[in-house]
Amino acid sequence: MELQAVLMAAGGGSRMTDLTYNTPKAMLPVGNKPLMWYPLNLLERVGFEEVIVITTREVQKMMSSDSKNKLDVKLKLDVVCIQEDGDMGTADALRHIQEKIKTDILVVSCDLITDVALHEVVDLFRAYNATLAMLMSKAHEFTETVPGQKGKKKTAEQRDFVGVDQSGKRLLFMANEADLEDGLSIRKSIVRKHPRMHIKTGLVDAHLYCLKKAVVDFLVDNKSISSIRGELVPYLVRKQFSKTTNSQKIKDDAEDQNQKKSDGPTNNELLISSRDEPLLQLAQERSCWNDHRGDMSEAYHGGKLRCYVHIMDEGPCYRFIIYSFVILGACHLIMFVSLLSFPYQAPKLCEEPAVHPSAVISERCQMGSDSIIGAMCQVADKTSIKRSTIGNSTTVKEKVKVTNSIIMHGVTIEEGCNIQGSVICSNAVIGRGADLKYCLVGNGQRIEAEGE
User: Which terms are listed as keywords in the entry (predicted)?
Assistant: First the structure.
């Protein structure tokens, strides 16, 4: 592959401590596979042979020593450990591995689960000699109740406004609702080149990016940028329409005066530096194969920074979702993965049977085809498991009902329990006759008998 793959797997999940008390976010079981297995499997399926994995020593140790978290991939993993407690963002992490980057890169987050045709993103990057090509998907609507403590008011979710050209591929504008205090404002430099722009909402950034190697070099010289999604991508999108002529620069300076602080670094020449730049520029100027669809105008609208987006309309494209609730005047973060509906997709993406061969399932157990049973599980008589995931080494005793729930590894569920719409973390014990609805039970916790 002409791209190097980089997996971001250093996040500790500090906002979901009930789930990540003993298990880092990257190793949380999802469909009985570690979360980071899914992007690694995606890269393996399209032909990558080596991946640079940016993670923590805790994750590295679990990858090598914990049999429950075997990744089962053939990829060569070049693991680079960083300090989990350090204030290091995703752009900082790229800066940290700059010496390992020899070509353009494909960056993917460990919390992405999708079966996207990855070539559609890479082809955009290649075809238009883009600086950035990214993946977005239409937001999924979930009707499930969020497990955990409930609040009276849900914090409003901030929408992204994404501007694309008529083809739906060229990324022209990006802004978050939280940053638009005075309304939506489009720069004249964009309108002049693209008088018709479609503004889309309801899109989710999948955190999958193709980036030029020069972008990594640029980050080394511009240490003020810490985050790919929050800072680098918006910066590239803004700067791709900056004029190089002095006359236009004077006109645009007035527009940009109020944005200087938010724009960050201004030396975008670093992003387009290349020893072949004069030859490339001459080829572009004399070519009709450009984003004008065959006319003879200057190639790529004269822009050297070019950003593109592939919007995934159908198919699974999930990321860890954090829901925020206001509880007793304080903001309490509760994790709800879209994975309460994930059992439908997991067998397809995992390419494994829904019931692990080592699991012992009673013939008198009623189990729906939309459920997953992990390795070395024991499920007793007169149990009912529907639309749920049961983790490895979990014991489910007689007359238990589990509906629409996620049961992690090493959990014990005593006789007569009823569990609905809940997440039960690893090594928890649910006492006899307990009735749990929309609950989040932390790692190693014990629910007393007959508890509600």
Answer: Initiation factor, Protein biosynthesis
Cα dihedral 285, 287, 290, 293 in deg (nearest 10): 120
Structure tokens at 451: 């508890």
Within 10 angstroms of residue 338's Cβ, the number of other Cβ atoms is 17
What pLDDT was estimated at residue 51? 95
Measured in residues, the chain has a length of: 452
Judge whether 20 and 13 are in contact, CB under 8 Å: yes
- Residue pointed to by tokens 């810490």: 226
> What is the Cβ-side half-sphere exposure of residue 176, based on CA atoms within 13 angstroms?
13
Q: Do 429 and 412 meet the contact criterion of CB atoms below 8 Å apart? A: yes
> What amino acid occupies position 378?
Q
What type of residue sits at position 104? Answer: D
Beta strand 372-373 pairing with 389-390: parallel
pLDDT tens digit string along 408-428?
889 999 999 999 988 898 899
Cα 124 to Cα 423: distance, rounded to the nearest angstrom: 39
Bridge-based pairing state of the strands 384-386 and 401-403 = parallel
Lookup: tokens for 119: 């070539």
Report which DSSP code applies to 438. Answer: S
Instruction: Round to whole Å and give the CA distance between 44 and 2.
Output: 15
Report the Cα–Cα distance between both ends of the chain, in Å, rounded.
Answer: 54
CA within 13 Å, CB half, 377? 27
The answer to whether the beta carbons of residues 305 and 272 sit under 8 Å apart is: yes
Is residue 6 packed enough to be buried (19+ CB in 10 Å), middle (13-18) or exposed (0-12)?
Answer: buried
With DSSP H G I counted as helix, E B as strand and the rest as coil, what are the percentages for the chain, rounded to 5? 25, 25, 45
Please tell me the pTM assigned to this model: 0.78
Q: Give CA–CA dist 413/398, Å, rounded.
A: 9
| CA dist 11 → 28, 54, 136, 288, 439 (Å) | 12, 10, 21, 45, 24
> With 50 as the cut, is the pLDDT of residue 224 above it?
yes
Query: What are the residues whose beta carbons fall under 8 Å from the beta carbon of 53, sequence distance 6 or more?
Result: 7, 9, 36, 77, 78, 79, 80
Percent of the chain surpassing pLDDT 90: 36
Compute the distance between CA of residue 325 and CA of residue 334 in angstroms, rounded to an integer.
7
Tens digit of each residue's pLDDT (9 = 90 or more) over 344-386 = 454 456 666 788 899 999 888 988 888 889 889 999 999 999 9
What single letter denotes the amino acid at residue 171? L
426 with 411: CB under 8 angstroms?
A: yes
**Best CA proximity match to 7, nearest among 45, 37, 47, 31:** 37
C-beta of residue 24 within 8 angstroms of C-beta of residue 111? no
